[in-house]
Amino acid sequence: MKKIYRIGVEATLEVIGGKWKPMILCYLGNGPIRTGELKRNLPNITSKMLTQQLRELEADKIISRKVYSQVPPKVEYALTDEGRTLRQLLVDMAEWGEHRVHERQAAGEDVALLHEDHGGYLNFEPITTEA
Fold first, then answer.
1. Is a pLDDT exceeding 90 seen at residue 19?
2. pLDDT single digits (tens) 60-101
């Protein structure tokens, strides 16, 4: 059966939608990372949810998984070239969120933003899909 998307953002959200995937991708923007380090950076995610999100991103070819044969086993995740094409989208999302937090702070709300560095997505040059 043919998959039909009403608008392009629907196709994007199918791959990176949800609470955790964009955050996982931002941490992977710093370079390959192990599951335990991701879990430490995302303390509110359950191990089951982290595993599910990583598997989905891997199935969509946004990240790669490398298993080292050692005891205990070591697994690293990294962005693929396709995953790196999401750079500008995630930077734009971060900037929009930062602006919104600052507006809420100015309105007197008790909100805080721990980092304004756009995650790792500023650590590499963007890859474009243009030919």
1. yes
2. 999 999 999 998 889 999 999 999 999 889 888 888 998 999
**Residues sharing a CB contact under 8 Å with residue 5, sequence separation 6 or more, in sequence order:** 11, 14
What is the structure's pLDDT at 29?
A: 87
Q: Which of 25, 7, 9, 2 is nearest to 90 (CA)?
A: 25
**Tokens 């809420």 map to which residue?**
104
Residue ranges of domains in the chain, CATH in brackets: 8-121 (1.10.10.10)
Closest CA to 24 of 39, 4, 12: 39
Question: Greater confidence, 80 or 116?
Answer: 80
For 109, residues 6+ apart whose C-beta sits below 8 A from its C-beta are: none
- Asked if residue 124 has pLDDT above 60, the reply is no
Contact status, residue 16 vs residue 25, Cβ threshold 8 Å: yes
SS3 68: strand
The arrangement of strands across the sheet holding 63-68 comes to 33-34, 74-79, 63-68
